[in-house]
Design goal:
The protein is mainly alpha-helical. It is elongated, with a radius of gyration of 20 Å. 8% of the residues are buried. 80% of the residues lie in helices and 0% in strands. The termini are far apart. Helix 1 packs antiparallel against helix 2. The chain has helices at residues 2-25, 31-62, 73-84.
Amino acid sequence: MTKFVAILNVIAWSGFWAFGYLALTADGLSDKQIVIAALLAFAGFVGGILAYMKLVRAAEASGYARKSNQLDAETRNRAHAKGAS
């Protein structure tokens, strides 16, 4: 599954860069075509971010990457209560 998400990640970022370049540098395109290119670039951006975050979570879960330093809710609440006293 992670290979599929990685492929989607590459495709999404490729779409972002390709359509973003078209939207920014197009000379002979109509306004409608530029808007469509910008929307497709935005969709590639969102898809790339979501796929990347999914890959990060999968890497942390598999042990390939170190886990982030976020505290769980109980530890965080205990630290806040101790600091407020």
